[in-house]
Amino acid sequence: MLKEIIIAVQSYFKAHRFIREQRLWKWIIIPGLIYAVLFVVGMYFFGKSATYVIELLSIKTGLKAWVDRMQSSLLGFFFALGGIMLWLILIMLYFSWFKFIWLILGSPLYSYLSEKTAFIMEGREYPFSFRQILKDMSRGVKLALRNTLWQTVYTVSLLIVSFVPLLGWITPLAVLFLECYYYGFSMLDYSCQRQKLPAGQTIEFIGKHKGLAIGNGLVFYLMHGLIGIGWVLAPAYAVVAATLSLYQSRES
Question: Looking at residue 49, what is its pLDDT?
Fold first, then answer.
């Protein structure tokens, strides 16, 4: 798995060179700007609602009042730290929902970008078919909904674990890797659908190459640390990098 994670990370650097050499910027900048605007707006409201949910829970359960009565600085510290962990998990859960909505909306563009990348790599063209695009979109929506459901189940389970002292501190990291896997899954799926793999075979194939999915999703999230430009470039770079990582994985 570690080898595949390294391949996935390296593929982002190759994707940058590939995009620059093939002049693919027009397929990246405009949808990237739309994504960045929606990301900023979405995360603002997600952050506000997450804070509200945590405050509501602490008041309704009486936990905040109990901590105040105890007048313990150590207990107050653990309470505040637990609130931060819970806030981070909720933000990741919200972001995962936003991400899958964007993947559904951007499916035609990202399918084309993955196909164009493969065409250049293989030197052959895939025939354009509007009916096939609709079929691929339907397939992509079903897989996205399936992944959203399972990711939500796992995240909610980890959310419950986050209330356990000490053990709960590592739950944001576990949620992050879960997020990385399912986002990378979606990026690799564009190549799988181009190869006409049924949904069941796609799930099995990517399950055997978890490292590629985790590595792809990990860099995608790290790119969001580059405020502004990272938000614009991250989605399309992830598509191209995922396509290139599959070629490198076969060769190694």
Answer: 81
Query: Could you read off the pLDDT of 53-74 as tens digits, one per residue?
Result: 777 777 777 766 666 666 666 6
Q: How many CB atoms lie within 10 A of CB 155?
A: 20
Measured from the Cβ of residue 51, the count of other Cβ atoms closer than 10 Å reads: 14
What separation in angstroms does the CA of 12 have from each of 18, 30, 106, 222?
A: 10, 20, 20, 12
Q: Note the pTM of the prediction, 2 decimals.
A: 0.79
Whether the CA torsion 107, 6, 92, 192 is positive or negative: it is positive
Question: Any idea how long the chain is?
Answer: 252
Q: What is the pLDDT of residues 76-86, one digit of tens each?
A: 666 676 777 77
Closest CA to 250 of 209, 218, 196: 209
Name which of 79, 91, 90, 48 is nearest 163 in CA terms. Answer: 79
- Listed by start position, the domains of the chain span 2-40+89-251
Look up residue 90 and give its amino acid: L
The number of helices, as runs of H, and strands, as runs of E, in the chain is 10, 0
